[in-house]
Amino acid sequence: MEDSLYHAPFHFRLGLVGFSLVTIQEVIVSMAVAGAIFGAAFGGWINDRFGRKPSILVADILFFVGAIVMALAPAPWMIIIGRIFVGLGVGMASMTAPLYISEASPARIRGALVSTNGLLITGGQFLSYLINLAFTHAPGTWRWMLGVAGLPAVVQFFFMLSLPESPRWLYRRNKVEEARSILEKIYPANEVESELIALRNSIEAEKADEQAIGDNFIAKMKGALRNVVVRRGLYAGVTVQVAQQFSGINTVMYYSPTIVQFAGFASNKTALALSLVTSGLNAVGSIVSMAFVDRYGRRRMMIVSMFGIISCLVILSIVFFQAASHAPKISQLESTHFATNATCPSFLSASNPTSWNCMSCLKAECAFCANGANEYSPGACLAKTSDLETLCHGQHRTWFKDGCPSKFGFLAVVFLGLYIISYSPGMGTVPWIVNSEIYPLKYRGIGGGIAAVFNWVCNLIVSLTFLTLTKALGSSGTFLLFAGYCVIGLVFIYWFVPETKGLQFEEVEKMLKSGYKPLAFKTKSTRGENQSA
């Protein structure tokens, strides 16, 4: 959906007077994330109060309304309103869908089934790139791109009407027979009774706690934070959500066409097509997660994933540094070839213009018109206007405004793909699996909501600052910064996140109650327990 903004008319994108195009783009992209923060916060309470199914239905309605508002928007402020509605729906769905799937799944395949949610999200992103590519030359391009996003919400809404409520939520609401009938469809006949007994014991303990604390929203929140099991669950749940966002993935997905242009691919269509590849790899990674997460475990998948992410980010930083260092020089002759008033003002007033290269030109908010004979040879630094862009293209030259022609561009795309492959099977899907199974039933909605709020707040911070960071630090410095965040995230995952593979919800609760330490820090007397590092 974010790619659609590239195709909005120039005068439309300038509809927010006094703001740069970068600021407008960051605000429009980030408003959905801001909406998701509130959607996740209230979604947790709605989940526990009214159920998982109504929460998903409300999320579908919000998303559909937002998509229609954006498609019909006469000005950028209207798109921002639509993005907020979309964000509210996304925030509610982001923590409800994994929770719903998790509570309706047998423990032995719970991870794989929750991973299907990640597959459908990444598959949807891949499909959105395909649709955007198809609409590139259609009349009203960006309106179609934004409006068609409402169709999946309509489809999910009507399918959801035919699905049952979560059996665990029903049991807690004293709808025992209804819960039993659903569990009988999920578990073998000989396992249903044991599931019901474990569920009853867990809920009886929770209800005793509830009588002491109360059941209104504020009392429940206080009770959650006072509960040692919930707190330890939040240490793990919040850790993985924050680490996920500070790996930079959503920035890569939001701005992948721009990042590809940073690598030296000037054409919007080429950048969008290459972004399609990265989005497809993200979907493939979700399939890998489905195959291995219940075999090798949540914790191991995330740790291996983080090592891969850090390696790729460091290499990407080196690649972008080399690309910037070897950017084509600026030729005074080429720059004045078009007309003196066409040349970049900062270049004309520079004290040492002979030291300028393409990156110097772009940092000065100008554009690079490549040499007609060889785009790696010295070219022109021109003012960034649509007329000069047309003039540059008219002389069979390439116009670069986001990145510079580079022989390293292919490497950047390759390691961007490897970064996605490292991210998707582990840090892409597993944090949502962990958060769907690590909290006690009574606090599962609120616990998942709190962790999701942290996820979306970090998402907002990263998406709001990415383009600004690339201008201040360069692409190389920005990727290196994210690598540093990932090192910190890896340490926190190792220390705070236990393994929950194959455990019943009640067993997870018991494990957290007794406390968790990585294997290397356990005493000899506790190393035989069911925790593994």
Automatic annotation (TrEMBL):
Residue ranges annotated for the Major facilitator superfamily (MFS) profile domain, each copy included: 1-501
InterPro entries, per database record: Aminotrans_II_pyridoxalP_BS, MFS_dom, MFS_sugar_transport-like, MFS_trans_sf, Myo-inositol_Transporter, Sugar/inositol_transpt, Sugar_transporter_CS
Keywords annotated in UniProt: Membrane, Symport, Transmembrane, Transmembrane helix, Transport
Segments crossing the lipid bilayer: 12-42, 54-73, 79-101, 113-135, 141-163, 271-293, 299-321, 408-426, 446-467, 479-497
Subcellular location: Membrane
Listed GO CC annotations: plasma membrane
Domain of life: Eukaryota
One GO MF term: transferase activity
Protein family according to the UniProt entry: Belongs to the major facilitator superfamily. Sugar transporter (TC 2.A.1.1) family.
Protein name: Major facilitator superfamily (MFS) profile domain-containing protein
Lineage: Eukaryota, Viridiplantae, Streptophyta, Embryophyta, Tracheophyta
